[in-house]
Amino acid sequence: MDHIFGPVNSRRLGRSLGIDLLSEKVCNLNCIYCEIGATTHLTCERAEYVPTAEIIGEIDRYFQDTERLREIDVVTVTASGEPTLHSGLGRILAHLKEKTGKPLAVLTNGTTLMDAQVRRELSPADVVIPSLDSAREQSFRKLDRPALCLDLGEIINGLVRFSHEYSGKLWLEILFSRGINDTDDDIHALQMVIDRMRVDRIQLNTVARPPLESFARPVSEERLLEIATLLQEYNPGIPVDMLARGALTKDTAATSVHAPAEQDIVDEILQMLKRRPCTAADINTIFHCGGSKKVEQYLAPLVQSGTLHIRTHGDKLYYLP
Ligand code: SF4
Q: Can you tell me which atom of ligand 1 is nearest the CA of 81?
């Protein structure tokens, strides 16, 4: 399966089946904290980067086993890059809705919502989780390193407009990196944008996994709590969640219902690591391999052959391609 992964047991969404709309890193940002590597195709152009029929065909084959519908609570559309750049997004969402009848979530970097067509295509989703890491030009450019075609003012206007047009749940995710977008001025600029939006939840994150750039550093837990308080005071009534207070391990905890054979497990682990670096403990929680040591044994040949690498972040070791 190239475009379907999971289901993973997401703390935010329940048992979530992931649909990845891209096969190379197509994005209009090149964030310093990106977990899936440098953007190889930096563009604002919407296109059918993967044939829509190929993705729909994979979805249909997956759900030929109708038992699989019982194993999931939600289908989450995401990408190795930015999913709204795929011009088949609307068709794929409509097909998923019809095929599964399950709630649909879409993760997006939130930079394409000035486009009325993107806003329309997102309408079948039940939850949209856009990001806005900074409302200040300097911090936005340093952290998210946008393509030249993007304008922060237009991005913010698109987000605000979408928030009022869209009738589903909107959860705004903000990732903070120490010394880049975590000053009081940054928080105040975000407060003012959120004040113009209809937001159901605010979700705070930091650099909790190995980032693309080593200078992308996490903010302290104390600062994240201060930021949460500042947002709650200025934007009362909007719940603020902390995604990066030891929660990420839980967020990736998943159920492997089919107890696949050993090689299948290794293949599934590789698919997951392409999208998110994980520790041996994370992998064990998801695939029930019999302990972190067992995971290390499975993966040792892949590390030796250079298929996988091990990287230290904080006090943990992460596996990544
Ligand atoms: S973090 Fe998301 S938006 Fe940023 S470069 Fe990576 S895929 Fe693109």
A: 7
